[in-house]
Design a protein that fits this description.
Layout lengths: L1 H20 L23 H11 L12
Length: about 70
Protein backbone atom coordinates (compact mmCIF):
# COMPACT_ATOMS: atom_id res chain seq x y z
CA UNK A 1 0.00 0.00 0.00
CA UNK A 2 2.88 2.37 0.86
CA UNK A 3 4.51 1.68 -2.50
CA UNK A 4 1.30 2.53 -4.32
CA UNK A 5 0.93 5.79 -2.40
CA UNK A 6 4.56 6.72 -3.02
CA UNK A 7 4.14 5.97 -6.72
CA UNK A 8 1.01 8.12 -6.93
CA UNK A 9 2.74 10.94 -5.07
CA UNK A 10 5.68 10.76 -7.47
CA UNK A 11 3.37 10.73 -10.48
CA UNK A 12 1.46 13.74 -9.14
CA UNK A 13 4.69 15.64 -8.48
CA UNK A 14 6.01 14.93 -11.98
CA UNK A 15 2.71 15.91 -13.55
CA UNK A 16 2.64 19.23 -11.70
CA UNK A 17 6.31 20.23 -11.96
CA UNK A 18 7.36 18.94 -15.41
CA UNK A 19 5.76 21.78 -17.41
CA UNK A 20 7.63 24.30 -15.26
CA UNK A 21 10.93 22.48 -15.55
CA UNK A 22 10.63 22.12 -19.34
CA UNK A 23 9.39 25.61 -20.14
CA UNK A 24 10.82 26.80 -23.45
CA UNK A 25 10.98 30.39 -22.21
CA UNK A 26 13.63 29.41 -19.68
CA UNK A 27 15.99 28.02 -22.34
CA UNK A 28 18.70 30.31 -23.75
CA UNK A 29 18.22 31.54 -27.29
CA UNK A 30 20.43 29.77 -29.83
CA UNK A 31 22.09 32.08 -32.33
CA UNK A 32 24.89 31.85 -34.86
CA UNK A 33 26.63 34.90 -33.39
CA UNK A 34 30.14 34.33 -32.08
CA UNK A 35 30.82 35.60 -28.55
CA UNK A 36 32.82 38.77 -28.16
CA UNK A 37 36.44 38.08 -27.22
CA UNK A 38 37.11 38.89 -23.59
CA UNK A 39 40.89 38.63 -23.71
CA UNK A 40 43.07 40.65 -26.04
CA UNK A 41 46.45 39.19 -26.79
CA UNK A 42 49.60 41.21 -27.34
CA UNK A 43 50.46 41.55 -31.00
CA UNK A 44 54.22 41.66 -30.45
CA UNK A 45 56.72 40.26 -27.98
CA UNK A 46 57.55 43.77 -26.77
CA UNK A 47 53.87 44.45 -25.97
CA UNK A 48 53.68 41.18 -24.05
CA UNK A 49 56.78 42.05 -22.01
CA UNK A 50 55.46 45.55 -21.27
CA UNK A 51 52.10 44.19 -20.14
CA UNK A 52 53.71 41.53 -17.96
CA UNK A 53 55.90 44.17 -16.30
CA UNK A 54 52.90 46.44 -15.77
CA UNK A 55 50.86 43.67 -14.16
CA UNK A 56 53.87 42.14 -12.37
CA UNK A 57 53.15 38.65 -13.74
CA UNK A 58 55.41 36.09 -15.40
CA UNK A 59 55.27 35.34 -19.11
CA UNK A 60 54.52 31.74 -20.03
CA UNK A 61 55.60 30.58 -23.48
CA UNK A 62 54.00 27.50 -24.97
CA UNK A 63 54.90 26.02 -28.32
CA UNK A 64 53.67 22.98 -30.23
CA UNK A 65 56.58 22.86 -32.63
CA UNK A 66 59.80 24.36 -33.82
CA UNK A 67 59.67 27.18 -36.34
Amino acid sequence: MKTLLCGLALLAALTVWTPFACAQDALPEVTDKKPNPTVTFAKTWEEAVAEAKLLNVPIVVHSHGFF
